[in-house]
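Exercise 7. Given the encoded structure of a 74-residue chain, write a plausible sequence.
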């Protein structure tokens, strides 16, 4: 069994990101720790909005080990 490689690669809308431009794990942790207090205040505000819930969900997708314990404690 053999595979035939195409002469021209297929076009893709995805942009190639160089390794030196990608965020590191430490940078992601710092970002989540910085934004988490404001998001938690917005979520537990009397007029809590869907935007705050969406922001919390996105933070939990980035670093669940930081966001979920805080959320479960409240």
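Solution.
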């Amino acid at each position: 069994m053999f595979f035939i490689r195409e002469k021209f690669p297929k076009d893709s809308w995805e942009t190639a990101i160089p390794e030196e431009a990608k965020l590191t794990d430490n940078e992601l942790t710092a970002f989540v720790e910085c934004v988490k207090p404001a998001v938690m205040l917005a979520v537990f505000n009397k007029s809590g909005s869907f935007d705050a819930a969406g922001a919390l969900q996105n933070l939990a997708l980035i670093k669940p080990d930081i966001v979920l314990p805080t959320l479960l404690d409240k």
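Remark. The chain has three helices and no strands. Students should compare their own answers with the one above.
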